[in-house]
Amino acid sequence: GNITFYQNDWSHAAEYYQRALELAQHLSDVSNSIGITINLALVLEAQGDIQGAGLYLRHVVSTLEIQSSHSLAQLQFLVQAYLALGSVYIKDSQWTEARDAFRDATRLVQSHSALERYRFASLLGLVEADLPLKRVQEAKKYMGELNNYQLNPLEEERFIKIKTNLDYMTSQ
């Protein structure tokens, strides 16, 4: 599944992830089931099935949130699910829900130093969700925290696009 995912071969990736998910569930392997479910949701999102992706991601979040304690791997899955869910909500113009998902991801990142690598994505997601909600001051605060990051080209492109939108909103 992962190979076809990175080749953008969505139909085969979905097929392989579905088979892997069935096997993991048959073996009662919760951790692998969760990771596979997140990947399957990302494939559905890439195929344009926003509702299907959201359904899988909400299932992952609810499954992990009901647990009383989490391993580091489970916390990483939870942050990844919140980030992906926020992105799905943004694509569906559900700004408040997106903000809530990114806020929950940020809360986890801030409470566990091992999750620091997700801070940029969670804060930028908050900015992206805040702009349509006209929460300009909050967006500016988060954007200020992001100015010191070393970004890869994709992150930089997204950052510049969102910063341009924020600058436009603050100039009006």
Describe the structure.
It contains 9 helices and no strands. It is mainly α and 172 residues long. Helix 3 runs parallel beside helix 5 and helix 7 packs antiparallel against helix 8. The model has no long low-confidence stretch (mean pLDDT 91). The protein is globular.
Quickly describe the structure.
The chain is mostly helical. The chain has helices spanning 2-6, 10-26, 30-46, 50-65, 72-91, 95-111, 119-130, 136-146, 153-171.
Topology:
Elements: H1 2-6, H2 10-26, H3 30-46, H4 50-65, H5 72-91, H6 95-111, H7 119-130, H8 136-146, H9 153-171
Write a concise keyword list for the protein shown above.
globular, 172 residues, mainly alpha, 78% helix
Q: Which percent range fits the helix content?
A: over 70%
Overall mean pLDDT = 91
Strand content: under 5%
Largest sheet: none
End-to-end distance: 47 Å
Outline, from the CA principal axes?
Answer: globular
Reading the helices and strands in chain order gives HHHHHHHHH
Strand segment tally: 0
Low-confidence stretches: none
Count up the helices.
Answer: 9
Q: Structural class, from secondary structure content?
A: mainly alpha
The gyration radius over C-alpha positions equals 17 Å
